[in-house]
């Protein structure tokens, strides 16, 4: 697999194929999996994503602590200025997947479980909007995987190592690049969409109440979806981010490495350390049984 | 090497790929190293695992792995009760491991009868794990490939004998590593393979005079 997104984009440009095709070829190249298997497994992931959104939108799931659940359904029924729009659907999808996750239901970790809502939220809403075939969605998923794989190689995908920018931030960048592919943008535009999105999440800390993947994680997937839409919108309008995507990823890694441990999933700082955050955690935290 | 499916996946029970799916795979690895269900497990949690593990279901995920449940098995949620039903006694503790240790790390000591095995492993994110020690020997194992582990007296010829057996079995070795704590003491041998070797090959390795124990751990998925 590529360790440079700029290289993958150049390869797509040079050979005149899509970024998804480049990602699929790179996955098959080591000879461990054949092309049909790779596509079938991505299609399975797509099916799980659809199911998670459906489950979450019922509004009937609640996390073990009871802190989150039911908000995706609330959003769909809401009457805000974006009611009934693609934007609303993206936020609701992202919330839905994360509510399923918090309830110990089945999701596709992409790139991680804590950041798993952004990609399906963005991709499935966009796919519905343009009437995308499953094959188009599979190719878009491959683009998302490529962005995540490069980030894993260059930086990190774990909140414990790099903060929330490494989870929902990368999830949003993956969704942005995938969204551009799905909407017929160029590989170069996909790279800019990822860069424009990731720059907006740099420095984002991982500060979950009581260490539970609930607050703010569930909501951060929704705002991550909004960030991805911003990146897609700008990139498809021809806006170019001056720092290449590889260097934005490197910057994310550098920021993550120097981030204080309080902001890396330890519940020691940020929202987790607020008076209300501490109180809720104390009330709701399930203790390890000894 | 990173695959698309390390990123788009795993399909798993929430809520955390490092604290739940990775932890489950660590438990599975320990179970397979012991070659079956432990009667007792001491689980020592380090760093972020110690601080926030309970809320992430890390305890339930580790226990689930020790029971042989996969990361996408919805019974993970109830694994502590399941452990009681199946006669797995669990003991949790927190520990501060020394050195440059990943924040999501656990040391797991499993026992069945007179056999005891211990691993130290870290959850690297996105469900990926690295086993960093087996029985106190430093190792680097991912569980992504079938892994042959054996401990042998540190004498010349052991590697030749073992790799000869694997070659005759038609096994392709992806990586191999031997490490010892002192010269002439015991050494641990780790072979990551493309396929699980035949029972005959494993028996052959167990029959090498210097070998004390050998175990094959299938791909931990």
What structural keywords apply?
heterodimer, A: 290 residues, mainly alpha, 2-methylcitrate dehydratase PrpD, 13 helices, 61% helix, globular, B: 221 residues, alpha+beta, 60s Ribosomal Protein L30, Chain: A, Alpha-Beta Plaits, 2 domains, 6-stranded mixed sheet, 4-stranded antiparallel sheet, 7 helices, 11 strands, 36% strand
Structure, explained:
- The complex is a heterodimer of chains A (290) and B (221).
- Chain A has 290 residues and is mainly α.
- Helices cover 61% and strands 1% of the residues of chain A.
- The longest helix of chain A is centred in the N-terminal third of the chain and has 23 residues.
- Chain B is α+β, with helices and mostly antiparallel strands.
- Chain B folds into 2 domains: 130 residues, 60s Ribosomal Protein L30, Chain: A; 71 residues, ACT domain (Alpha-Beta Plaits).
- Chain B is 28% helix and 36% strand.
- Chain B contains 7 helices and 11 strands.
- The relative contact order of chain B is 0.16.
- The mean pLDDT of chain B is 92.
- Chains A and B meet through helix 3, helix 5, strand 1, helix 7 and helix 8 of A and helix 1, strand 1, helix 2, helix 3 and strand 3 of B.
């Amino acid at each position: 697999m590529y360790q440079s997104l700029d290289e993958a984009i150049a390869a797509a440009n040079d050979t005149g194929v899509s970024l998804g095709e480049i990602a699929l070829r790179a996955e098959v190249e080591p000879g461990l999996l054949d092309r049909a298997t790779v596509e079938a497994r991505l299609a399975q992931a797509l099916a799980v994503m659809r199911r998670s959104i459906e489950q979450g939108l019922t509004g009937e799931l609640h996390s073990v602590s009871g802190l989150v659940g039911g908000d995706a359904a609330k959003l769909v029924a809401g009457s805000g200025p974006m009611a009934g729009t693609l934007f609303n659907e993206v936020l609701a999808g992202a919330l839905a997947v994360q509510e399923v996750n918090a309830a110990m239901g089945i999701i596709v970790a992409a790139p991680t479980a804590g950041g798993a809502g952004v990609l399906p939220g963005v991709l499935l809403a966009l796919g519905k909007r343009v009437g995308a075939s499953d094959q188009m969605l599979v190719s878009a998923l491959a683009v998302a995987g490529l962005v995540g794989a490069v980030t894993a190689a260059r930086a990190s995908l774990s909140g414990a190592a790099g903060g929330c920018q490494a989870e929902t931030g990368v999830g949003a960048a993956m969704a942005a690049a995938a969204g551009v592919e799905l909407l017929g943008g160029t590989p170069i535009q996909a790279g800019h969409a990822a860069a424009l999105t990731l720059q907006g999440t740099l420095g984002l800390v991982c500060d979950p109440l009581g260490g539970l993947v609930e607050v703010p994680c569930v909501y951060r997937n929704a705002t991550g979806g909004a960030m991805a839409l911003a990146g897609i919108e700008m990139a498809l309008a021809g806006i170019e981010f001056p720092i290449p995507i590889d260097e934005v990823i490197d910057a994310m890694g550098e920021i993550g490495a120097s981030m204080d441990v309080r902001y890396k999933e330890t519940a020691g700082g940020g929202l987790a350390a607020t008076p209300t955050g501490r109180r809720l955690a104390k009330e709701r935290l399930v203790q390890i049984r000894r | 090497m990173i695959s698309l499916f390390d990123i788009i996946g795993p399909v798993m029970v929430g809520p955390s790929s490092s604290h739940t799916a990775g932890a489950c795979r660590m438990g599975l690895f320990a179970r397979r190293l012991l070659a079956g269900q432990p009667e007792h497990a001491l689980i020592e949690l380090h760093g972020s695992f110690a601080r926030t593990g309970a809320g992430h279901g890390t305890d339930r995920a580790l226990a689930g792995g020790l029971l042989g449940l996969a990361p996408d098995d919805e019974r993970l949620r109830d694994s502590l009760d399941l452990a009681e039903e199946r006669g797995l006694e669990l003991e949790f503790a927190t520990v501060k491991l020394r050195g440059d240790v990943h924040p999501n790390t656990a040391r797991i000591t499993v026992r069945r009868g007179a056999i005891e095995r211990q691993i130290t492993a870290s959850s690297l994110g996105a469900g990926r794990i690295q086993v960093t020690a087996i029985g106190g020997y430093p190792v680097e194992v991912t569980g992504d490939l079938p892994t042959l582990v054996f401990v042998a007296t540190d004498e010349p010829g052991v590697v030749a004998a073992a790799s000869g057996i694997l070659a005759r079995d038609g096994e392709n070795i992806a990586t191999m590593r031997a490490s010892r704590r002192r010269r002439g003491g015991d050494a641990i041998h780790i072979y990551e393979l493309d396929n699980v070797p035949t029972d005959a090959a494993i028996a052959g390795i167990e029959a090498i005079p210097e070998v004390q124990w050998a175990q094959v751990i299938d791909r931990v998925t």
